[in-house]
Amino acid sequence: MMMTPPTIMHNHIAGNLERLLNDRLDRKAPSLLAIQRPGLELGSGDYKPEPDVGVIDADFQAGQRFVEKAYLLGEVVSETDEVSVPGTNRRWIDVKRDLYRGHEYCEAVLVIAQDRMEVELDLKTESGWNSSVLKGGGAELSIPAFGFWCVVSDLYEGTPLAPRMANKPIPSSSD
Asked: Any idea where the domains of the chain sit in the sequence?
């Protein structure tokens, strides 16, 4: 069945998150790997969401498609995520978020807006989940369990919300 692909903005934000996470994981937690669409089975029945980005164990096998554990799950909010689940007053993104938080190995959930610089961050603690909303490009996003830190605008680099400079010089090989 042909499905409408995500927007370029959606994919670029997910790619930025994956790259930023891997940059930190390479140094702080090399046994972990950030990957897009990690093949984690969540949900039941006809509704099995696929997270946009997940942090998984780095020791996967050639040909492997699915994982049983994800330690961080990230979702870039699409227009369809804002629609109410039929028969309820809950949005799809809220259902996804609950499923991600319900995964026993998950320690952090990121819900990233694509129409504004805003990130919802859920961190698992001994007493439950702590949630915060980070608004604006200068807001600091910190996930200590993964040695991860960036500012929110880093997630949007190269998008219409944080465009690349058109006249930025290309570095030469001598730089």
From this structure: 8-155
Superfamily classification of domain 8-155: tt1808, chain A (3.90.1570.10)
Q: Give the number of other Cβ atoms within 10 Å of residue 146's Cβ.
A: 19
* DSSP code of residue 105: T
Q: Can you give the pLDDT of all 175 residues of the chain as single tens digits? A: 556 788 999 999 999 999 999 999 999 999 999 999 998 878 666 667 789 999 999 999 999 988 999 999 999 998 888 888 888 889 989 988 999 999 999 999 999 999 999 999 999 999 999 999 999 999 999 999 999 999 999 999 999 999 987 556 666 666 5
pTM of the predicted model as reported, rounded to 2 decimal places: 0.89
**What is d(CA 145, CA 129) in angstroms, rounded to the nearest whole number?**
14
Task: Kindly give, in sequence order, each residue whose CB lies less than 8 Å from that of residue 87, ignoring residues fewer than 6 positions away.
Answer: none
Rounded Cα distance, 100 and 54, in Å:
10
Strand positions, DSSP E, the chain: 32-36, 53-57, 72-76, 108-112, 118-125, 128-135, 140-143, 148-151
